[in-house]
Amino acid sequence: MESFQDKGLNQPLVESFQENGLNHLPVAAEEVSSELENVLSDRRLTASSRYRKATWVESKILFKLAAPAIIVYLLNNVTSMSTQIFCGHLGNLELAASSLANNGIQLLAYGVMLGMGSAVETLCGQAYGAHKYEMLGIYVQRSTILLMVTGLPLLVIYIFSKPILILLGQSISVASAAALFVYGLIPQIFAYAANFPIQKFLQSQSIVNPSAYISAGTLVIHIFLTWFVLKLGWGLLGAALVLSLSWWIIVIGQFVYIVTTCKQTWNGFSVRAFHGLWDFLKLSTSSAVMLCLETWYFQILVLIAGNLPNPEVALDSLAICSTILSWVFMIAVGFNAAASVRVSNELGAGHPKSAAFSVVVVTLSSVVIATVFAILTMVLRHQISYAFTGGSAVADSVSDLAPLLAISLVLNGIQPVLSGVAVGCGWQTFVAYVNIGCYYVVGIPVGAVLGFKFNLGAKGIWSGMLGGTVMQTIILLWVTIRTDWNKEVEIAKNRLSKWEDEKAEPLLKE
User: Fold this and answer.
1) In angstroms, rounded to a whole number, what is the distance separating the alpha carbons of residues 442 and 470?
2) Mean pLDDT, to the nearest integer, of 110-128?
3) pLDDT tens digits for range 404-416
4) pTM value?
5) Cα–Cα distance, 5 to 11 (Å, whole number)
6) Which residues contact 193 (CB under 8 A, 6 or more apart)?
7) What is the DSSP string of 49-91?
8) Are 72 and 114 in contact (CB under 8 A)?
9) I need a labelling partner for 306 at 20 to 30 A (CA). Which of 210, 261, 289, 393 fits?
């Protein structure tokens, strides 16, 4: 392990580390050092040389963060999908039940927990950049406590999932089977409550590879266990319980890594975790509202399409386009995580130029990749649907929707990254209001009018909702471009001072 002097860090930074009781650089601290800020401030270089060198420095850090994050989200998605595939081999009723439970009830819990866990991204990221390492463990414990409590009302929804699904128009047979699957997912609620704070805790320190390895190993175990319990005849309940167990394996694996490796940022369980929970709840709630409004937006698109005159073709074509969009979205989510980490780290470290430059690099990188997929979508617009179904009517409908899908893919290269920037800066409440206005006041009503009043069908519904996304993206772009990054550094400094309470002895040392 290299010492401060070996790294050639300046004396004030060395003293900052030593004040926190650290004699060596913690994991990934090199990425949040002043290297990028020094390059951007080096007037000995020409502007082109300065930006070229800075782009190389930032790109290396960015893709080390984004690539494993993408893999983690993809693997977690595949874990749930593999359960549905196995259930599909039990019969059509079981496939419908597992799909409804996973994409309906379970998605609600996933969105709420992931959203509330995003508060940890802001606080841990900025605290890590400011070298307040002892606070990271406190923040992750506070978040876990709040998410565990939040799991209780979600538990009630899971318990009463059958009457809820019947009330929403599902048949008794499908609702009964889906409810059985949901009962097996109850332990997963609290796995989410522990996983997302832990995941954000690690990401804020640029530690992403271990989560990818743990998710990959868990997927292998999950597939074997699911096959085994179905062979035993445990059916939907057994498959769901295995899915819950797999999420707990991920949680335990990551926590063991934290306890054994993150010595500077994890100092054991502490009573300080119970201080300031109300303010933490307000930030967590804003984060949850912001993310859930985005997650539910395109789910509503499918629900509205079910009321069209020819719903079968509309739903099939929208399902195919939504599947493609969701898989490419996983890439954008990786850049979302990278943007949040980079911006929060640099703001916490007091590097306004680096924070602003990180936003530019991560946004352009994501847009380029999204544009490539958009072009492929247009080139293969007549062939895409045949990977899912052989119907010519659906193929024609998908081809007709392809231009809208391509635009959505490009926007998905921008919007999630800007949301990541918002999380890194702590703008969750503002973005929640923007999402309400753009998505639910403009996008959905306009889509409904175009789809039903003007008889444009699925294309009209998507066009209206796409308009809401464009509006939201423009607003976030405008706000980001006009951001005073020096002021954001001061806001981050004040936020950390507010959130850092008086030091207390840990409740339990590891």
Assistant:
1) 11
2) 87
3) 999 999 998 898 8
4) 0.83
5) 9
6) 113, 144, 147, 148, 150, 151
7) HHHHHHHHHHHHHHHHHHHHHHHHHHHHHHHHHHHHHHHHTT-
8) no
9) 289
